UniProtKB/TrEMBL annotation:
InterPro entries for the chain: Aromatic_deC, PyrdxlP-dep_de-COase, PyrdxlP-dep_Trfase, PyrdxlP-dep_Trfase_major, PyrdxlP-dep_Trfase_small
Record key words, sorted: Aminotransferase, Decarboxylase, Lyase, Pyridoxal phosphate, Transferase
MF term (GO), any: carboxy-lyase activity
Official protein name in the record: Aminotransferase class V-fold PLP-dependent enzyme
GO terms classed as biological process: amino acid metabolic process; carboxylic acid metabolic process
Family: Belongs to the group II decarboxylase family.
The keyword Transferase is annotated on this UniProt entry: yes
Organism: Trinickia fusca
Modification N6-(pyridoxal phosphate)lysine, positions: 318
Keyword Lyase: yes
Regions annotated as coiled coil: none
The protein's required cofactors: pyridoxal 5'-phosphate
Amino acid sequence: MFRSAILASPSSLDQRIAPARIEPETFRALGHELVERLADFMAALPDRSVKPRQSAQDIQSWLAEAAFPETASPAQQVLGQACDLLCSHAVSTSHPRFWAYVMGAASPMGMFADFLAAAVSAPATSYATSGLTVAMEAQTIQWMARLIGYPSGGGGLFVSGGSVANLVALRLALHAVLGADVRAVGLADPEASQLCLYATEDAHSSIDAAAEVSGLGTQRIRRIRLDAAGRMDVTDLQQKIRADKTTGKTPLMVVATAGTTSLGAVDPLRDIARICRDEQVWFHVDGAYGGFAALSPDAPDDIHGLQEADSVTIDPHKWLYMPADIGCVLTRDPKLLLDTFRQGAPYYAENDEQALLGGPERLQFRDLGLQTTRAFRALKVRLGLQLVGRSGYRQMITDDIRLARKLHEIAGSHPELEAFTHHLSITTFRYRPANSVSGTAEGEARLDRLNHAILDELHRCGIAYPSHTTVRGKFALRVCIVNFNTSLADLEDLVRHVTDIGRAVSRDLA
Ligand SMILES: *Cc1c(COP(=O)(O)O)cnc(C)c1O
């Protein structure tokens, strides 16, 4: 045979020994053991420190114990050690009192799905390579659109997260505005040097990153004023677009945010949609955090303006509670992703039969974005949605919003707390003892220090893991609940500890 003719020593390959292989019986035993340990881990999580205490020296010494693996080690030892280390010392977003940034608690069904997808290891690149998996993924994309009320005739793509989804959206806008030539010419065209992008200062930092990576440059971002509620000021938007047009600039794209990362504010999407339509500007909604709030009757009505967007970013690893990482970009024109990204390299198979399932514009994922080899990430979203249904997500998201509102009410009526904001499932507040002075620079600086110390102490004791932000220049404790494990008792615990720590720290600072 041709194959054996080119092998150096075919006889030694007859019974190949592959150290990576784990025999089915061992796989079964190891898997059972791992699941046992993880079930224990999840059961014990609520009683565990949210942020297990460890110093940089500790971490350094744990890592130093792991010498460079020159040779093989037993599977049980390798898996067991990692399990010991992570179950004892890792921060878990699934902890009922983890509320930092915007990080969803991980759905157990999502964990199973990731394992299943990795084990079957089916490619998610094209119909010709693996028809079933890409068709399942394409259907799941349609479900995402339907879930948030976005037109179902559009296209979309699962990516690693909201940051990449925003980059893809910017690329779509460039293609739509400059035409197909942008693929060859890049931004060298004189028209390209006049493009402007519009976003508020509370837009996510990945918008800046997208402007950089695309070659547009952050100088092209026009910062639109925020109104008193932290939303995009549409009058300012309208004026800036008009002013740019009169000076020969080309408005490229408005990035509105459905749930800002800091405070959860939802920009007035319907008004922005109207301006974009009138001015013929690409309308992108960054709903990485708040897009799925469209499911909830408790979200501001404006959220439904995302239905009118040319492109939308949503992040299943935030409010669909999926294990990271998975983000999603949706767009109205199903062919645009293909036109923007398709390379059609000669070494890839094509297949006409796929028309029945939506054609290459829905199925040829390697030609719809930046990734060629892709994980079958869609499976976790699919199974997660099948497990709870739209109604289950509506309930969980609404509960998260109501818990955040409740925290805001508790803080608002507590004599030692000051409630700042509540939008979607984010509440900001601070500790402010009755005798404190606020309003003066000195008094505010003292309150900032005090609340900073409270946050550090919460993290240090591992009681709760909120993060912080600034509200009108004031340091605020920030609780973002994208966590179906959180209950009201957890928030009451938080309030009790904030006030206990606050009193102790105030005494120390006095
Ligand atoms: C989290 C977030 C992003 C970034 O998403 P990743 O999944 O972390 O890449 C973008 N925009 C908003 C509004 C976000 O909250």
